[in-house]
Every structure is written in C-alpha cells, then in structure tokens.
Amino acid sequence: MSAGLRPPTLGPRGARATTAVVTVAHPFVHDQPLEASMTQPTVVLVHGAFAESASWGGVIARLHSAGHRTVAVANPLRSLSGDAAAVRAVLDSLEGPVVLVGHSYGGAVISAAAQGNRAVTALVYVAAFAPQEGESIAELSGRYPGSTLGDTIQPVPLADGSTDLYIRQELFHQQFAADLSAEDAALAAATQRPLSDVALNEGAPADPAWQHAPSWFLVPELDRNIPPQAQRFMAERAGAHEVVELAGASHAVPASRPDEVADAVLRAIKATAA
After folding, report:
1. pLDDT tens digits for 102-157?
2. SS3 letters across the chain
3. What residues of the chain score a pLDDT lower than 50?
4. Which pLDDT belongs to residue 83?
5. Is 19 exposed, middle or buried (CB count within 10 Å of its CB: 0-12, 13-18, 19+)?
6. What CA–CA distance (Å, rounded) separates 63 from 269?
C-alpha cells in the first residue's frame, strides 16, 4: 500500500487529526449496468456480532442529512450462509444501486450476500472481516496477534446443540467499545445480540463479492476483537480502493465514530456514481 495517492474526488472531507486516509492505487471497473449508476443508491448497513441495528444510528443520521436512503438490516447472527441469505433477500427487495456496508462479522456476511449482485456498486468494511473461500472469522481473528475477545466470552448452550456467544457485560466496555462513554457502553452491553458458534466457525463461500466490487476499509487502531493487522491484510488482499486508519478507535466505530464511517460511505457513493 502506498500513502499520498489521493485522487481529488476521494480526498478526505474535513478529516480529523485522529484519522489517516490511505488511498490505494487499485483502479476499479464498474460492474453494474449503466442505468443503475445514474440512480441514487440505497445504503444497506449490516451489523456484526454483539451489536444490533441501532448501533448505526449516528451513521444513519449523517447519511439522511446528505439525502441518502438507508436500510439497517437485522443480521440473524445464526450462520454465515443463513445470514447471507437473509441479507440477500433484503437486497433483492430494493430497486436501483446499493452501497453495502458491513461491521465486524457483517463484513463476512456482505461478502457472501452480494455475490453476483450487479446492483451492489461498492462495499464498505467497517472494522470488518473480508474472508476468502473457506476462511472462518474464527480463523481470521487468530491469524495475527491482538484479539482478546476469547477471554471475555460468556457461552450459552442451546437446546439444538449450538452455543450462543455473548461478551460478558462487565468486560464489554474495555473489550468492544473503549471509546464510548461508560453509560453508552453499558447500554450496548445490555442490548448486544449473541453470535452463534456456527457462524463463528463456518467457512466462507467461493467468489466473495470483494473480488468484483470496489471496496473501502476502516481500520480502528485499538480494535480488540479483530486485530488491525488482520484488517489491513484483508484490505490489501481485496485491492481496497481506500483504507482509513482511525487512531484511538475501538471496535465499536459505527457508534463511536459515526462521522468518519459516514464520510467513507459518502466517498464510496461519490466514487461509484458515474
């Protein structure tokens, strides 16, 4: 990756001192029909594990103020294949182009859900997984040092033999959302939705969407769930059009850094609009 390669249409708008934008010299080819590119896209937001749709609230407010329709999908968090099918059904219900955004495990879901969907013009990975065929998020989390998530998990066995995984509430603030206030982190801990161990260990399907659609990545410096080194590896492998490094940010960037997340989405919209 090389810094300083910033085409005028992709320069960071009002970037904060805590944000470093690294634009990667990977040109992309529009793979959507021409007529789709002339319509304002819908932004579809897919949350990850230990979160829920309301975690996108600040991002949605910013996108709405910019005039963009948004849909925050309720990710089931049951299995990668099933979750991707649920998101794919939402995508199929929409008309016109889509910019698809995934946080955390939601990145693995959007990579599978957008397979072969020519309406998806851009993918935005927010502290997220972008797996290759056969890779699970458990494997990718452990490929590089830095994740402390395993030490914070509270397992809840289910009658069907699977296990739901929660972050222990007393450890949630430090593990997941260190840059949120204690009050906001406590609310997020209480409302977190569990990830099934099936989703944790299921391998990704072949032909992920990031092999065909341009991608943007946001990498939080202090992510304790997905090591930043792993996120940079996935961004480079995907040929990311832009990588945004968020200094001092935790894994909970949709809630803690909504402006930076929304700015990246807006740049993706602008870059793929023509």
Report:
1. 999 999 999 999 999 999 999 999 999 999 999 999 999 999 999 999 999 999 99
2. CCCCCCCHHHCCCCCCCCEEEEECCCCCCCCCCHHHHCCCCEEEEECCCCCCHHHHHHHHHHHHHCCCCEEEECCCCCCHHHHHHHHHHHHHCCCCCEEEEEECHHHHHHHHHCCCCCCEEEEEEECCCCCCCCCCHHHHHHHCCCCCHHHHEEEEECCCCCEEEEECHHHHHHHHCCCCCHHHHHHHHHHCCCEEHHHHHCCCCCCCHHHCCCEEEEEECCCCCCCHHHHHHHHHHCCCCEEEEECCCCCCHHHHCHHHHHHHHHHHHHHCCC
3. 1-18, 24-38
4. 98
5. buried
6. 11
Q: Report the residue count for the chain.
A: 274
Query: CA angle 228-137-82, nearest 5°?
Result: 135
Tracing tokens 């602008």 back to the chain, one arrives at 270
What lies within 8 Å, CB to CB, of 273 at 6+ separation is: 37, 41
**Per the structure block, which two tokens stand in for 179?**
């840059």
**Alpha carbon separation from 38 to 114, 118, 121, 163, 225 (Å, rounded):** 20, 14, 11, 45, 38
For residue 146, which of 202, 74, 199, 219 has the smallest C-alpha distance?
219
Tokens of 135: 């890779």
What does DSSP say about strands 120-126 and 242-246: parallel, antiparallel, or unpaired? Answer: unpaired
Distance CA 80, CA 74 (A): 14
pTM of the model: 0.89
Neighbours of 90 (CB within 10 A): 16
pLDDT at 39: 81
